[in-house]
Amino acid sequence: MASPSSSSSSGFQNSRKPVGFIANAIKRKDSFIQLFAMAGILLLSMRSLGQKYRLHDLQEDNYALRDEHEALTERMKNIKRSLLDEAALDSTGLLASRLRVLFGSEEH
């Protein structure tokens, strides 16, 4: 009697063959299409989020560069003004006129 029960159990195991990936994909193609669509949307969302943060960082860099440019422009004006003021103290006026030609201004 042990023999029929073991033959029926082994027959039951052999009839249950594992389904391959391709066969399973064909069988449930709607689910696979949804999975790939959702994965694509997720990847696009992640890329968009990365670009959003990169854009934010670039805007911050732009503001910092503008502030630095304004500070450097103001510093150049101060240096130019102090050079012209010191040159104006020269009794001959030669240095002041030369600086005005170099700077391209007729301030003093």
Please, could you describe this protein's structure?
- The chain has helices spanning 2-15, 21-27, 29-88, 94-103.
- The protein is mostly helical and 108 residues long.
- The chain has one domain.
- It is rod-shaped, with a radius of gyration of 40 Å.
- It starts with a helix and ends in a 5-residue tail after the last helix.
Distance between the termini: 122 Å
**Count of DSSP helices?**
4
The radius of gyration is 40 Å
Average pLDDT value? 82
Poorly predicted regions: 5-9
Sum up the structure in keywords.
mainly alpha, 108 residues, rod-shaped
Write the SSE topology.
Blueprint: H1 2-15, H2 21-27, H3 29-88, H4 94-103
A few lines on this structure:
The chain has 108 residues and is an all-alpha fold. The protein is built from 4 helices and no strands. Residues 5-9 have low confidence and may be disordered.
